[in-house]
């Protein structure tokens, strides 16, 4: 579950540019009724360095696959914006890992 994973952001850019990633209240499950990510909020500012830290099975790779558009089924969210697009299935959104 994602509650055991930390998203750490370090940004040297302190101006008010629009974030490159804004995700609010993201919920995801591979299997119906078995939540894998619950209530994730993530805002990443331009030129940030990100570290995902968590135990095995915490959801780090799942989150990266969601952000890169590899996983887009069974997603629920209040806001999902990556580089100006709200389509979770856009694999050309500029996010890679």
Give the helix/strand class.
mainly beta
Task: Please trace the helix and strand order, writing H or E for each element.
Answer: EEEEHEE
Average pLDDT score: 82
How would a textbook summarize the main sheet?
A: 4 strands, antiparallel
β-strand amount: 35-45%
User: How many DSSP E strands?
Assistant: 6
Distance between the termini: 21 Å
Question: Considering DSSP H and I runs of 4 or more, what fraction of the residues is helical?
Answer: under 10%
Shape call: globular
Number of helices: 1
Catalogue the unreliable spans: none
Roughly how many Å is the radius of gyration? 13 Å
Description:
With 97 residues, this protein is mainly β. Helix content is 8%, strand content 37%. It has one helix and six strands, in the order E-E-E-E-H-E-E. The strands form two sheets. Strands 2, 3, 5 and 6 form a four-stranded antiparallel beta sheet that branches. Strands 1-4 form a two-stranded antiparallel sheet. Strand 2 (21-28) and strand 3 (37-44) form a beta hairpin. The longest helix has 8 residues, at 60-67. The radius of gyration is 13 Å and the shape is globular. 13% of the residues are buried. The model has no long low-confidence stretch (mean pLDDT 82).
